Amino acid sequence: MAEGLSYTIVEYFGGDDGYRCGYCKNEKGNFSHGMWSHTMTVQDYQDLIDRGWRRSGKYVYKPTMKKTCCPQYTIRCHALNFQPAKSHKKTLKKMSKFLSKGELPAGGPDGESGLQPTRASSTPAPIELCFVNRNPFSDSSSATGKGADPARPPCRKAKDLRKERRLQKEQIKRAVGGDSGASPATPTTPTPTEAPPGHAPQPKPLEAFIHESLPDTALHRLEVRLVAVSFDDPTFAATFEQSAALYARYQTAVHGDAASECDESEFRRFLCDSPLEAESPPDGPEMGYGSFHQQYWLGDRMVAVGVVDILPTCVSSVYLYYHPEFASLSLGSYSALREIAFTRQLQKQSPKLAYYYLGFYIHSCPKMRYKGKYLPADLLCPETFFWVPIERCTARLENARYVRFNQDPDAVDARAFKDLSRVMVLYKRTVMPYAAYCRKRRGPSDQEQVEQYAALLGQTCAESILMYRDIRGP
Pfam families, per this entry (predicted)? Predict the structure, then answer.
């Protein structure tokens, strides 16, 4: 293999006989094709998820859509045009109230336990994205407060609160306008402005809800830290045990896993072992591309972690886990809103990075339909791999589990597999096209398996990704 070049190297496993579905609980109804990725470039993974693939650790899989019991459609949100719905504003207000008063709302997380529940080099420095009030977090024990502090001062007069809100709006406008003193994490999406006479007011943007200033009496400080998934990163290494313990607590309490199913080795395999190679091109975002953990901290206590992949055109949500004590804050929805805002922030640095991928949309599972509320959104047509607005898809999904969303009968997969001879393989540590490999190979033919693999990847990916072939033959 040539030195200094980045390759994606995979071992293709083919389909399987069916396994238990995590959505409808059918014992043998879930079907998919899978491959193990030893290493993967971010562009190759971007191309794969745009053909319906997803990763779980280093295992990359694609549901067999016409066969599986609960078809899983790739979904993406147009982050730049996103406007929070009423339910999203409610979630943001719940968090603001908790930070201000320390009150956890009654009830559960409204069915949202995370965005992607399926499990199946040099590193950039950590970036910190802070949601901070003006009072420092007093002590770690107050992070679990269940009610208002009786020692807190009496409520201020309404006119004082109005004055404070006016000053806060002015501060946000100055920051958005390019004030040289603004923090790098300050949102840059425009804030609402006064509408001209006769025009409707502009809607309040997502960032204004997230970064709304808290009162002086606020009890808590929430900080979100972006950490590269690498043990070479000192922040990731220092917080690994705490993060693994939080994962185990979440899995046992929320998903009912046995302790052996969510120990440190399983946590490492599922959420720390990533095939993605970190890349920092000059036209990319400041922290580069790759796999990251977004850690949510209350003082010195980690309360949630969102796992994301930053790719050339999107932020892709992988998983979320959190302390069950905070389930009533709807952290699945809250973290998605934070990740949409994060995508919008990155787009300012890398213009083509404009989408937020929420994993799979499973219409046949009512609890997973909430992903369709992050609008505007598209679903990926499973046959042509065109993106189709979700509102044109959901009505058809009411009548059938599997649907070809592209209604143009002449539309085809533009990257369909056409030429087997040009599929790239890695054989005896040498990169070669399949035609050359066939002349060197010993043993029975593997053409049927390679054709299946190439059809699932499409011609572009099949010519870029290296399919590992054992030196002993198939």
Answer: ATE_C, ATE_N
